[in-house]
């Protein structure tokens, strides 16, 4: 959900010379809320807010909800005050990610493989090679908007320009459900009509610093000497980037997909807790979520990290690299609990039984896990341990035809869970470990 400023004056015809405008930025409109309305048509036209719970924040809001002043990262409690009749829904990241994957695969990749996915709801495309089949970049943008709407019943906005900076600013100002083409000759003019926050990367702190130097717009920024700009923002490198941006110049290339570095899941408790059982139950959910994501994407991981955020908002992480790659919660959870105890200075043997609770030494606000050291499952070689080999040998002797190890049985069981959830919904079955 973009909160970047938009100018109505920018949403106009900038000309039709598309020479060199081979970069598209596609940004889905109110993506999470739009997807919920796509699968629940009765919600269309209503203020839909994604984010529930007294301590949660808004992840997305429909355009109807935004009229009440609701935006992303706002506390959900505040959103309820602004829009008491709003329809508040929980975040369903598995659904949003799957729909995003389909949009990128079934629509964007039909044009080119030169795609840089920035997040689940936005990405860049370099369509220079695709122009041998398409007449104009704007024709590609129009087709993408039409196909996304037809197939997925959501809308997107497209910016067409000669570089990533201007294309992104164009898509922002084309929202909702629009397209802006900015010819090369008009890049500087387009950028310089914007407020400072219109340039991606200029946040409240830098904006305040620049305004203290009398810089209130991008046009003011463009008129500033680069040496003085370095003094204003406190960085020579940062000043050069701003100097280029204020002229509509961006030397970054569209970088096609790079493998994910980690997969994680975390949640905030409804109230700070000292209960080991509550924290352990949340870690169970997080391990299950991460493991199912790994399997769905055909990945395995080597390193597990546990994250805790305390009541004072400080946080701590601890990681461990396992001997064998993993993609099951059955492997992850015992390790996550061990890391949790170590982080809190607890005796590894204390309260070890599942039926026993314990009081933690610090109040916990949030907990989660992440898996990193990712590899493609089909290319990952798993070397059985001596214990695995002995177990497999014993299994063959005692249960003919079932020569499997515990990790293999865990994987098979959790794949069965995946199948049940895929057919009956994510809440149809839960992990019992």
Radius of gyration: 25 Å
Oligomer: single chain
Q: What is the residue-averaged pLDDT?
A: 86
Number-wise, the strands total 13
- Count of structural domains: 5
The biggest beta sheet reads: 5 strands, mixed
Question: Which structural class fits the helix and strand makeup?
Answer: alpha+beta
What is the CATH class name of the largest domain?
A: Alpha Beta
Number of helices: 15
Termini separation: 36 Å
Overall geometric form: globular
CATH architecture of the largest domain: 2-Layer Sandwich
CATH H-level superfamily of the largest domain: DNA polymerase, Y-family, little finger domain
Instruction: Give the DSSP E fraction (strand runs of 2 or more residues).
Output: 15-25%
Helix content: 25-40%
CATH third-level topology of the largest domain: Dna Ligase, domain 1
- Regions with little confidence, pLDDT below 50 for 5+ residues: 350-355
């Amino acid at each position: 959900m973009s909160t970047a400023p938009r100018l109505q004056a920018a949403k106009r015809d900038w000309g039709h010379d598309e020479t060199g405008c081979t970069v598209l930025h596609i940004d889905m409109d109110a993506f999470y809320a739009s997807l919920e309305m796509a699968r629940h048509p009765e919600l269309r036209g209503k203020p839909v807010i994604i984010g529930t719970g007294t301590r949660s924040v808004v992840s997305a809001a429909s355009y109807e909800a935004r009229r009440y002043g609701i935006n992303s990262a706002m506390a959900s409690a505040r959103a309820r005050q602004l829009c008491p009749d709003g329809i508040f829904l929980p975040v369903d990241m598995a659904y949003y990610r799957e729909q995003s994957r389909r949009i990128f695969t079934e629509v964007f990749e039909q044009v080119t493989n030169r795609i840089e996915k920035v997040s689940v709801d936005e990405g860049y495309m370099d369509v220079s090679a695709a122009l041998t089949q398409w007449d104009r970049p704007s024709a590609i943008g129009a087709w993408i908007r039409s196909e996304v709407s037809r197939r997925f019943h959501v809308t997107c906005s497209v910016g067409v320009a000669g570089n990533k900076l201007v294309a992104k600013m164009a898509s922002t100002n084309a929202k909702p459900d629009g397209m802006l083409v900015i010819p090369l000759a008009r890049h500087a003019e387009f950028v310089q009509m914007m407020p400072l926050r219109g340039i991606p990367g200029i946040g409240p702190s830098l904006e305040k610093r620049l305004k203290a130097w009398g810089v209130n717009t991008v046009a003011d920024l463009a008129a500033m000497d680069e040496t003085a700009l370095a003094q204003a923002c406190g960085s020579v490198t940062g000043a050069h980037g701003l100097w280029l941006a204020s002229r509509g110049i961006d030397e970054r290339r569209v970088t096609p997909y790079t493998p994910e570095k980690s997969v994680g899941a975390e949640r905030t408790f409804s109230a700070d807790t000292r209960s080991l059982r509550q924290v352990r139950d949340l870690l169970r959910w997080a391990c299950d979520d991460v493991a199912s994501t790994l399997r769905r994407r055909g990945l395995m991981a080597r390193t597990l990290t546990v994250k805790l955020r305390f009541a004072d908002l400080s946080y701590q992480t601890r990681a461990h690299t396992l001997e064998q790659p993993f993609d099951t919660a059955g492997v992850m959870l015992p390790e996550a609990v061990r890391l949790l105890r170590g982080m809190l200075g607890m005796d590894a043997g204390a309260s070890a039984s599942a039926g026993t609770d314990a009081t933690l030494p610090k109040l916990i606000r949030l907990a989660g896990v992440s898996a990193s050291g990712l590899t493609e499952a089909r290319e990952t070689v798993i070397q059985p341990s001596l214990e695995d080999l002995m177990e497999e040998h014993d299994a063959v002797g005692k249960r003919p035809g079932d020569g499997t190890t515990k990790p293999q049985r865990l994987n098979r069981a959790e794949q069965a869970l995946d199948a049940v959830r895929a057919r009956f919904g994510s809440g149809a079955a839960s992990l019992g470990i």
